[in-house]
Amino acid sequence: MKQNREYREMELRFEPDGAEYRVDGYASTFEPYKLMEVDGISYYEKIEPTAFDNADLSDVVFRIDHEGRVYARTSAGTLELWTDEHGLGQRADLSRTATARELFEEIKAGNYPKMSFAFRVAVDGDRYDRDTHTRIIERIAKVYDVSPVSFPANPGTELSVSTRDYFNGVIEMEKAERLEEERRERQRQKIKLLTEV
Questions:
Q1: 122: which DSSP letter?
Q2: CA 76-14-37 angle, 5° bins
Q3: Given CA atoms 55, 61, 63, 67 in this order, what sign does their dihedral have?
Q4: Which domain holds residue 99?
């Protein structure tokens, strides 16, 4: 279901190999990253190094901005994915078609400054750390694509619907808890004043 897909942008770390039309880089890293800020509170996300261990990586495509033409594909042997201590790495062979070679030149020219990937979190595959306001993704069910992107998303305005819903729920829960604590504190103060009289 497309509405469950989430998209994340990472710094583009392509290392083009001009002789082979090969593009190496990372679609995701394991470093925590800030997703949004609401009412002065920063909300983060972190993907665990083991999150991709059982993910479906069988038919992932390499395309621009998560849509349109496919330039490489794992099932065709032109896209390779792996994880290491840094993150989810990818290597795309863009030598097979004229349009893929043109895309290689666009990447080499710096026209795509960020890398993004589309994915779905496994059921019960994430948790929330209240102390650090961090969503921790422990298991990813499926990776759909890895994409160089022309304009990186502004996490505050372009988060996927499922991510926005997740954090809206967390934010509302935390606000309700703060309001309840403030109400209890006012009640304690009122009782304290009454007992002092």
A1: P
A2: 110
A3: negative
A4: 2-196
Q: Which amino acid is at 135?
A: R
What are the CA-CA distances from residue 69 to residues 54, 99, 141 (Å)? 27, 9, 24
Report strand pairing: 87-93 vs 126-129. Answer: unpaired
- Binned at pLDDT 50, 70 and 90, residue 13 comes out as low
Task: Yes or no: say if 100 and 71 are a contact pair by the CB < 8 Å rule.
Answer: yes
Q: Mind giving me the DSSP string for 27-80?
A: EEESS-EEEEEETTEEEEEEE-TTTTTT-B-TT-EEEGGGSS-EEEEGGGTSEE
Give per-residue pLDDT as tens, 90-106.
889 999 999 999 998 88
Q: Over the stretch 38-60, which tens digit does the pLDDT of each residue have? A: 888 898 999 999 999 999 999 99
Q: How many domains does the chain have?
A: 1
d(CA 99, CA 3): 30
- State the pTM of this model: 0.73
Task: Determine the 3-state secondary structure of 144 from DSSP.
Answer: strand
